[in-house]
Design a protein that fits this description.
The protein folds into two domains: about 40 residues, Homeodomain-like (Arc Repressor Mutant, subunit A), CATH 1.10.10.60; about 110 residues, Tetracycline Repressor, domain 2. The protein is globular, with a radius of gyration of 19 Å. The protein is mainly alpha-helical and about 190 residues long. The chain is built from nine helices and no strands. Helices cover about 65% and strands about 0% of the residues. The longest helix has 21 residues.
Amino acid sequence: MGRPPRIDRAGVLDTAMALADESGLEAVTMQAVASRLGVTPMALYRHVGDKAALLDGLVERLLLDVDSPSPDLTGPRQLMEMARALRATGQRHRGVFPLLLTRPVATPLAMQVRASVVEALEVAGTGSDRVGQTERLVSTAVLGFIVSEVSGRFRNHPRQVIDADFDRLLELLGGFVTHHQDRQPD
């Protein structure tokens, strides 16, 4: 009898992501992932914990899939490029992307991605007393649009209209971020 296949966390998450991309998030079960890897479901637990940790790992993978903006960009321009890159990730991972609206950022790597958004807001002038709230509001607006798009809510609109709507959302959010900067007394 041969040795069982060797697996690791990265392989488990890659397999779960591929399964979600092909068949939707509801298809991602410990049994389905294990079956694809040629192992028993119990073999997964040592690498990803439980189903909740598997989903947290998928959130991490989605966020790490987002291309980083040019380091030459700062503040609002950096935030706009992050949003565009996030939208591209949504297009690549339609089946799993809605997970970003239903699960909090939980893994250390995912928290680093969130921290980069917070840092860009701070560079844009958002004060420390408002940065958490601003990040939640801006992220929710951008994620909500992208989830609506990848879930088919806008399917009756031409691509050109959807693209213009996304650009307008970013314009509005840029104004929101600018408006909520800390103002120093003159």
